[in-house]
Specification:
Oligomer: heterodimer
Radius of gyration of chain A: 13 Å
Number of helices of chain B: 0
Largest interface: A-B, 21 and 23 residues
Largest sheet of chain A: 7 strands, mixed
Number of helices of chain A: 0
Shape of chain B: globular
Number of strands of chain A: 11
Chain lengths: 119, 107
């Protein structure tokens, strides 16, 4: 059974830092690109970042480029999102999601972790 | 950047009725269009990939059609558990875009 479990959410001040993690199980992680998607409370979904299966390539939404870093450790089955200099508007539930193999959609999602940016 | 516009914003129907949800892209996305269902307090769940391919375990009452810029998700006969928010999503290179969602609620 494929499982994605996020952790690391919490309250952070604007300009601080927060690291989110996602523990994957039930599949061979290095075969799949992985993604972070966020959802502002009460609003819609927004793509944040994607990393290739090997970790060699990473892609970011303009809203987070230069501030957030996506990374992975396939030996530990983990995916991370380092949030530097977060802003109030980055407050959201952050979901870890798997990009289907050879696909253009996200076939498995974690339950999400809430990152709240506030002074 | 592709913009996805979903309509209507809210759709009020009764169990047993047919639901038709629309997603329009600002430019052609070929067949790269997926649909997700999100129930309150839950993560999104993939329903349809590549316009019309049902994901594993998704009931046959869900179907997707369309191409280019206009896409439709149809639920043939609504079950109580189908009342939720539905999102469309496309991919262009390494940029992923979601629509703003359609809330399907009970009339």
């Amino acid at each position: 059974e494929v499982r994605l479990v996020e952790s690391g959410g919490g309250l952070v001040q604007p300009g601080g830092s927060l690291r989110l993690s996602c523990l994957a199980s039930g599949f061979t992680l290095n075969t799949y690109a992985m993604t972070w998607v966020r959802q502002t409370p009460g609003k819609g979904l927004e793509w944040v970042a994607t990393i290739s299966g090997t970790g060699a390539d990473a892609y970011y939404a303009d809203a987070v480029k230069g501030r957030f870093t996506i990374s992975r450790d396939n030996s530990k089955n983990t995916l991370d999102l380092q949030m530097n200099s977060p802003r109030v508007e980055d407050t959201a539930i952050y979901y870890c999601a798997r990009l289907g193999y050879g696909s253009r959609s996200f076939d498995y999602w974690g339950q999400g972790t809430l990152a709240a940016v506030s002074s | 950047e592709v913009v996805l516009t979903q309509s209507p914003a809210t759709l009020s129907l009764s169990p047993g009725e047919r639901a038709t949800l629309s997603c329009r892209a600002s430019q052609s996305v070929s067949s790269s269009l997926a649909w997700y269902q999100q129930r309150p307090g839950q993560a999104p769940r993939l329903l349809i990939s590549d316009t019309s391919n049902r994901a594993a375990g998704i009931p046959g009452r869900f179907s997707g059609t369309g191409s280019g810029t206009d896409f439709t998700l149809t639920i043939s006969s609504l079950e109580p558990e189908d009342f939720a928010v539905y999102y469309c999503q496309s991919r262009s290179g390494w940029v992923f875009t979601f629509g703003q969602g359609t809330k399907l609620d009970i009339k």
